[in-house]
Amino acid sequence: LYHMARQELDLAVAAFNAVLQSQPTDSWTLGHLGQCLQMLGRMDESQSAYERSLSSNPDEPSAHRGLASLAKARGDTDAYQRHLDVCEKSIPDDPWVQGEILARKELADPAAAIARREGLLAANPNDLPNLARLVSLCESKGTLEKADGYLQKILAAKPDDKDVIASASAYFRRTNRPERSLELVQKFAAGRSRKE
Asked: Rounded to whole angstroms, what are the CA distances from 2 to 21, 63, 155?
């Protein structure tokens, strides 16, 4: 964990693998190895480590959390829900789990979630994660004009952030406005080339 906390992920992987040499079925170690591999972008190896963890201990929370995260990233909603349900019972205080549970509840009643989040926005207008969630909720309700307004605030705050641009571009493509997506990416690319 020392190396994980310091973001020395390759060293953490080596340390976890060293433990697994003598304890190959240690579910805790396998779960944390999976987290490191996932953070390194080695998704197939991460998936394998999480699955090995669960074969040793079907209740290992870190493995369920990791598998929920991987399932969400690849759009496997059944696996995501199944693993998140286990996480909700086993690690309800985990910040990632709490955020995912809140997002699931918000999707069940987006109008109430939007009202609550707009109240939060009034208190803190620069809360970018809240603005991003408002974009998502408004998109799910079909109120694209409101979603666009929240997205413009994010873009104004982070005009040079490639992840924000990629997310905004994907939003415009999802909402059948590919021309807005292209315009945004072209503007970003032009700005980057002027800086270089």
From this structure: 19, 19, 36
* Signed CA dihedral, 85, 88, 90, 96: sign only: positive
Residue 121: left if φ>0, alpha if ψ -120 to 50, beta else—which one?
A: alpha
- 159 phi and psi angles, rounded to 5 deg: -70, -20
What distance lies between CA 106 and its chain's CA centroid? Answer: 16
Which residue do the tokens 């315009």 mark? 183
For 102-151, the DSSP string reads HHHHHHHSHHHHHHHHHHHHHH-TT-HHHHHHHHHHHHHHT-HHHHHHHH
What is the pTM assigned to this prediction? 0.71
CB 123 within 8 A of CB 116: no
Whole-angstrom distance, CA of residue 145 vs CA of residue 92: 35
Residue 194 structure tokens: 């002027």
| In contact, 20 and 49? CB cutoff 8 Å | no
Give the position of tokens 């805790």. 28
- Decide which of 107 and 87 is more confident: 87
Lookup: tokens for 74:
């690849």
Cα separation of 16 and 33, whole Å? 6
Place of tokens 């490639």: 162
**pLDDT higher at 75 or 42:** 42
Q: What is the DSSP string of 73-109?
A: HHT-HHHHHHHHHHHHHH-TT-HHHHHHHHHHHHHHS
